[in-house]
Amino acid sequence: MQKSQLFIGLFCMLFCWSCSSSRSGQYSIQQKYAPSELQEDAQILEKILESNHPSLYWYTPKEKMDGYFAETIHGIQDSLNEVEFRNRIAVLISQIRCGHTIVRYSNQFIKSLSKNRVPQFPLSIKTWDDSLVVLANINAKSNIKRGTIITSINGRSNRSLLDSFFKFISIDGNNDSYKSQIVSNNFGAWYRNRFGADTSYVIGYIDSAGIERKETMKSFRPFIIEKPKSDSLQKLMSAFKIPTKREIRKARRNAALSLTFDDTTSTAYMHLAGFSINGLQRFMRKSFRQIEEKKSRNLIIDVRDNGGGHLNNSIRLTQYLAKHPFKVADTVAAINRNFTKGKYIRQSFWFWFPLNFNTTKMEDGRYHYHRFETKKYQPFVNHHYDGNIYLLQGPSTFSAAAVFTASLKGQENVQLIGEETGGGNYGNSAIHLLTVVLPNTKIQVTLPLFRVVLDKDRPMGRGVIPDLLVTPNSFAIKQGVDLKLQVVKEKIKVKIKK
Q: Can you list the domains of the chain with their CATH numbers?
């Protein structure tokens, strides 16, 4: 009986998979979904968030959040394509003010987009406050060069453009600098998401003489490299050394983790692009041993592009630098041990175990992760660093990376230099991140399980504020100068002279 049931179950799974595969083959980015399907997706999402999101009402009261859901659901009266529906859900989710709760397109949308040569925006742009400054231009003959200040695009002012993008972006609390960084990461994609793909763009800009001008630029289509024919494959392989998967992984790791020394100023420079990179703990052990051998008096740790990752690795790095025992958080708590609509939540089966075996229900009715709330972490004795520490941070410093800089802020030998972090200084919702896949559109929403209050005495709503604020400017971008790193190097030189 059990074998026959297993066979039937496997047959049904294969049948459903084949059906879904055939449907995905017919997928079109512009296909429409019926209002009833879209409303069902939004209602399921509401039930899941109400049951499992630990901070749904942290910044927005329940009455208002309920109103946003009702407005979104009842406002769907016509058929919508995936972009239109995803945008409505993104606006809704942004009201939670949780940077870990983000909305992504379906896998079928992403796959379809990658296969089609969709017209692309011709400029790469860095944005902060109301500023738009060019980082790169696909057209080398254009008058708009790196460092050029943009004043408008297709008649829309900088502020109106940014405001139209920002409403779709989730942040921790009230930190708009993080929104600017997210837009900077792919300005063209945000423009296309909001206004569609245009064939040309009228760019308003300031020329080298300080005069405002306009230039019309055409969009471009990305190249698609076709697989070479078998007769030419051998020639291609003989002409170029194709890297192995191992070599590719090593190159990526080296770009994400690096340590260099400047013997003239007795300075070590460490770059950490994330806390979930393979080999990170080995890299840290080796690095701090080398720093000790070199007797470097100054240590720069660059986490400007560190979006977080494993909290244990963030803690480990802190142990090499902290002068006193420290605790990670005052509160790490979930609101439920079980999952509502669990069939729409990837990994829900596996995350049931830590929720039920690693947490304790407390008087507040929440399930607390006591390991992070009570344990005092001791600074390492071996290869501990006691010299001058400069932490470079910015809007992309998020989650566990913001926890790292916040934990060292105020220590007498530590200076935080750069911009406000994207990750919250008071706390965030994180630890375990699951993915909700809505049944009809397959749009994906990240679901954090734990509310993390790092320090209840810190003010809510902002990122970690640097000790020395260094903001971007168009001149530094034009010259290709790393302004924040330059400021640190100048500080070290001044200290040496004294």
A: 123-218 (2.30.42.10), 246-433+449-497 (3.90.226.10)
